[in-house]
User: What shape does this take?
Amino acid sequence: MDRVAAVEAVPAAPGVPGVEAKAAVPSTIRIVIGVKIYPLYNDNFAMLVLYYQNSAAANPVRIISCGTNHLNRSNAIPIVRSISPAGYAAPYGYEGVMPPEPPVNLDLPNPLNLLNPCNDYNIPLYQLQIPTGELFNGTPLPQVFPAFFTVDLYKIQRRLLEFLLDEEDDEDDEQDDEDDEEDDEEDEEMEEEEVEDEQDDDEDDQEEEDLNEDVDDEDY
Assistant: This one.
C-alpha cells in the first residue's frame, strides 16, 4: 500500500530531454475498507467488502460478499476474481454469500436459497477483525485493549438496506408527485377546454338568436 510519487524530470545534459522518475513512498495509511453496493432489485442487493492492510503480504486481505443477494455470475464475479490474491477463497476468489446451488434450501430466513447467507448477527464468517494496533498507527497498546476491533458486517448490511429502501421510497414519492402534477395539468387543460366549449356554445346561441331576430324583422 505504498503511494507512488512522481519526481520532476531533470535533463541529463543541456538539450537532452529529462526522464521522469517515480519512487514508492511508504504510506502512513494502515488499513482501508472498501464497500461496493450493487443496485437494489426486488428489495434485495449485493454488497462486497474489501479489507486492505498495509502490513499484509498480499491485498486485499479479505473480500467478503455480505449483501442480501449474491454477486452476479456474469459480470461481478469475474471482476472480483481478477483482483483476488492468488489462491484466495477458491473457486470465486471471495468469501461469504454465494449463488444458490442444488439442492434448494427452503429455509424461510433464506428465501433466495443463498449459500452462506448473511442474515443474522454474530455469524463468524461476517465478523471483520481489525488488529487494534493498526487503528493506532502500529503503536504498542496496553493489555487492557482488545487484540482486535470487530465489525459485524450484518449491521452494515442492515443500515445500507434501510438507506436503499428509503431512497427507493423517496424516488417513488417524487414520481407520484410528478404524476399528480401531470394529472393536475391535464385537469386544468380539460377545464379550459370546457370553458372554451361553453363560450363557443354561448356564441352559437347568440348567433342563432341574432338570426331569429333578423328573420322576425323581415317578416314585419
